[in-house]
Amino acid sequence: MVYINPVMNQPYFQKISQELGLKPGQVQATAELLKEGATVPFIARYRKEATGSLDEVAITVVRDRLNQLQELDKRRETILKSLEERGQLTDELREKILRVETMAVLEDLYLPYRPKRRTRATIAREKGLETLAQCLFVQQDMDPVAEAASFIDPEKGVNSAEEGLAGARDIIAEWVNEDETARARMRDLYSSKAVFKSKVIPEKEAEGIKHKDYFDWEEPVNAAPSHRILAMRRGEKEGFLTLRVLPPEEEALSLLDGLFIKGGGPASEQVRMAVHDSYKRLLSSSMETEIRMATKKRADVEAIRVFVENLRQLLLAPPLGQRNVLAIDPGFRTGCKVVCLDRQGKLLHTETIYPLQSEKGAAGAGPKILEMCGRFTVEAIAVGNGTGGRETETFIRGLDLPKNIQVVMVSESGASVYSASDAAREEFPDQDVTVRGAVSIGRRLMDPLAELVKIDPKSIGVGQYQHDVDQGDLKRSLDDVVASCVNHVGVEVNTSSKQLLTYVSGLGPQLAKGIVEYRNEHGPFRSREELRKVSRLGSKAFEQAAGFLRIRDGENPLDRSAVHPESYPIIHAMAKDLGDSVLDLMSNEELRKKIDLGQYVSDKVGLPTLNDILLELSKPGRDPREQFEAFRFSEGVEKIEDLKPGMKLPGIVTNITAFGVFVDIGVHQDGLVHISELSNRFVKNPAEVVKLHQKVLVTVLDVDSGRRRISLSMKQGQPQPGVASEEGRKKEEGRREKREKEKSAFTNRPFASAFGKRNQ
Predict the structure, then answer these.
(1) DSSP 8-class letter at 640
(2) What's this model's pTM, rounded to 2 decimal places?
(3) I need a surface site. Which of 315, 379, 385, 688 has the fewest CB within 10 A?
(4) Measuring CA to CA, which residue among 339, 374, 373 is closest to residue 353?
(5) Are residues 169 and 221 in the same domain?
């Protein structure tokens, strides 16, 4: 729920509209809908007239910006209250605080007044040296030593003029550190000219070899990409690297001198000493912490963006659809677990075969597969792509299968996580994890979205440094994209799992559970209206959810469409005006062409909604995902040792990162297409060129079997091995070094196996 301050909302709406290039009314309408509990998918799909047809991306940005401003307001209120209670709040300070637009500047304003621990400046003040500090800070023509002599007081701990000057400099150093202008200028310097400097901790070279690329590394802060920032921070966190973020020291000191030094006399020299001490002891540390936080935030945003986009593409992968499926979870020693599923994904049969252990095992497994295919009218066979996957696929394709049966390799990423989850145990309490894993593989072929929502997105293996980014931000973003995909596709209420229903707009875990319990007790829902009978599913939840829930064979044909029930009267009016039925309107394009939408515009319903209604009537309930296409890896290329430079192979994109893409070519180890090898043209963002699960043709550039690294290219016209020029070889060597460095930073992490080295 977004908090909207009743006093500050209008300025906020104006501010956000300017930032995003929107009209203030669009921002205000979005904010009000969010405040009422409307979800982002609902607002984008069914409240276009209110928001001016804002899409989910724009609505989400408005929501998040409102939350940021809310947090700023809360902190502002806390600071004002604290200052007022301690009698430090002046009218001028209040005005400054109320005008602040960023959290960093707000904290700068508060810093001089913040309750402090006992510092060197605090001790100096207790010794009565603040007056001396003020005299020095004015920098008039004076003798600092003579002036300090009058402050000697052994009882207060000032035993000499030099001790008095040292204490005064401590006070001046604190003033410099807390100066609003100094901090703003220094912040700009750090942002524009600071450099990351990472070095290996002595005697940690061998233990931290995976961070070798950063043993002696420097890079400008404003140019460092997300993945390298997170890689350096990880090396520091694991205790192998030291990491500093510093600007040119001379420039930083010169900047401060320009702000505080007013001449060249003895007093100015004392102030200069204090200014330099302030930078080295206080300000540089404070700014370094701040810039580290800012760059971490920037890196997090990019890493989360990559993860979210990959996850969206994965969730919206084309489904095979409702088919009778035989699914196989391959294995060598323990055998291959086989399950048979009906068109709704219900488990009908399970068996274990041993085709990879011996010729005898293969001879016995073949007839069993063929018998199951006949008995359960199998239409497709799903083979997990883990250890033994290619060998199992080869075995299956070697059988005399009916021509109508498709054989498809399916990603196992996350299947083992699902098989051990509470959801899997609840659904299959009497089956072991291997059976559950095989069921997940088969269902993922039938409908990737419906199956993948049961798995924590972080376990699916399409992210970049997901364990290093802010986990709260990551979870919110992943929840957003899962909900977006689920509501974009729509959910069949009578067959969907509790986990899938949970992501429907307006529902959540408890209402999803209630829907499943209701249909188990009363049978399939016959209409959307019947949803109102579900316990605790009130009018607000119904409004939010109904348009995204489908009832394929319900009493009302509109219930299988994305038309919201609130719009049914409009369609009935259209059909009545034409003298036909709603079914006629849905099936006859010529009838729909006769409709004059202008007749149905009202103060609540405009042309955006009416156009959506007509579009939906032409394809009620049609799945918006692309059509499924079968894919096959190259025969005879099943392990990394089979690869040779120059080979051209089909592959599937398994992960997209900032520096390139990983491609599965069927050898149990994904290869890297570095960003420089994605296209003959310059590419800034790999997502410009490929999508997750896209089928691509790659050329093998280099194979390192020892380190299990494969370098690939998607460029057209790759030269054959041995025919490149000397200059070309040198360029390729340089590119290879860069690829290896970036891949090393990416793959040397705990979750690399999720999409690189296959689950074993």
Answers:
(1) G
(2) 0.78
(3) 688
(4) 339
(5) yes
